[in-house]
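Hey, quick one: can you model this chain's 3D structure?
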Amino acid sequence: MQQSQGKEVLVTVSIMLATIMQVLDTTIANVALPHMQGSLSASMDQITWVLTSYIVASAIMTLPVGYLSRRFGRRKLFLWSVAGFTLSSMFCGQANNLNEMIFWRLAQGVFGASPCWHWRWLPCRCYWTAANTWTGLKRGKSSSMR
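Sure thing. Here's the predicted structure for all 146 residues.
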C-alpha cells in the first residue's frame, strides 16, 4: 500500500513539473524575444520564427500523439518527451545563430506536444492522468495539488 502511494505521488509530481516546464518555456521565450533578437542579430520578421516554429511543431504533433501513446504507452512517451524537451531546451540555450535557435525550438515543439498533447490541453490531460493514477477519495487531494 505504501509503495503504491509512493508511485502515485511520483506521478503527480511529474505531471506538475511537466506543466511548469512547458508553461515556463512559453513565457520565457516571449519575454526573451527582444534579447534574442539583439544577440542573434535578427530582424523582427526573422525572430518571430523562434515562436512560430514551436507553435507549428506543437500543432502538427497534436494529432499523432494519441497514436504514439497507444503504440508505445503513455509512460514511455511521457519520459521520452520530457527528455527530448529538456535536451532541446539546453541546445536552445547554446544556439549561436538564428537557424540553430529555430531548429531547437522546432524540436521543443515536437517534444513539448507529446507529454500533454498541446499546452492548451495540458490541464485536461494532467487531470485525466491524475484521475487514472489516484483512486477513491485521494483523487480530490491530488486535484487540489495541481
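One thing worth noting: The helical segments are 2-39, 44-72, 74-93, 98-116, 122-133, 138-145.
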